[in-house]
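Renewal narrative, Specific Aim 1. Our central claim is that a sequence can be written position by position from structural information alone. The example that follows is taken directly from our test logs and has not been curated for this report. It begins with the structure tokens describing the chain, in the order in which they were read.
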């Protein structure tokens, strides 16, 4: 059922793609390196669940990126907290995965996220 629905939405998206051009082209996947283990985020697939860019890009779509604000200043929540709040809270509400290793590839630990 889910597969069929995603297929339909993608098809509509492709047809609409001919006329709708995003101001900023969204990436297909985003990989985030950090100490807990690389996070592989399927950006394109997530657009099926949420279609308002601003739900996640709360400061708008133009640069700076999340990490350019979060963690630099005491007024702004640390990147880890901001992402956990955004990613995990939605997963808890909407049936996405919540175990650490469903997002973190613990075999690929790198430097700090901030
Ligand atoms: C479910 C949350 C979510 C939604 C909805 C979403 N994005 Fe993103 N997007 C992200 C995350 C997380 C990143 C990675 C940011 C980082 O690594 O700092 C990202 C990265 C990007 C990037 C790469 C540049 C950057 O800021 O890192 C672009 C461009 C982008 N998104 C465009 C879009 C557009 C256009 C839409 C709406 C059609 C959209 N996004 C909707 C979460 C989302
Ligand atoms: C221009 C700076 C800036 C950018 C870019 C930015 N944020 Fe934020 N963010 C803030 C500030 C300031 C706050 C705290 C005030 C507020 O809630 O608006 C915040 C709050 C948040 C919160 C709420 C945290 C809490 O404790 O309730 C989340 C979640 C969040 N940001 C996620 C993101 C994500 C994900 C990105 C990238 C897609 C991003 N932010 C990009 C400045 C930024
Ligand atoms: C607005 C809601 C929402 C937000 C925000 C969100 N997700 Fe999800 N995510 C979902 C839902 C719903 C599913 C389950 C989709 C399914 O089973 O078809 C999911 C599935 C996933 C999966 C498993 C499937 C896959 O794509 O590999 C991963 C990993 C994931 N999300 C990572 C993230 C990360 C990392 C973030 C934050 C950068 C994030 N998600 C933010 C709703 C969200
Ligand atoms: C829904 C996805 C998701 C889940 C589930 C999740 N995380 Fe994360 N976590 C992230 C994202 C996204 C980041 C920010 C990564 C980045 O920007 O490099 C992060 C960052 C972190 C960081 C910061 C690493 C650093 O280098 O500063 C730690 C530590 C962490 N997570 C621990 C955990 C633990 C422990 C769990 C399980 C209790 C967990 N995470 C579950 C998505 C998730």
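The sequence written for that structure reads:
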């Amino acid at each position: 059922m889910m597969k069929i629905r995603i297929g339909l939405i993608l098809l509509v998206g492709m047809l609409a793609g001919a006329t709708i051009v995003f101001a900023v082209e969204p990436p297909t996947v985003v990989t985030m390196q950090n100490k807990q283990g690389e996070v592989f985020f399927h950006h394109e697939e997530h657009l099926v669940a949420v279609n308002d860019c601003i739900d996640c890009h709360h400061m708008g779509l133009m640069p700076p990126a999340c990490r350019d604000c979060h963690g630099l200043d005491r007024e702004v929540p640390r990147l880890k907290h901001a992402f956990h709040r955004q990613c995990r809270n939605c997963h808890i509400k909407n049936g996405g995965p919540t175990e650490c290793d469903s997002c973190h590839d613990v075999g690929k630990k790198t430097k700090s996220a901030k």
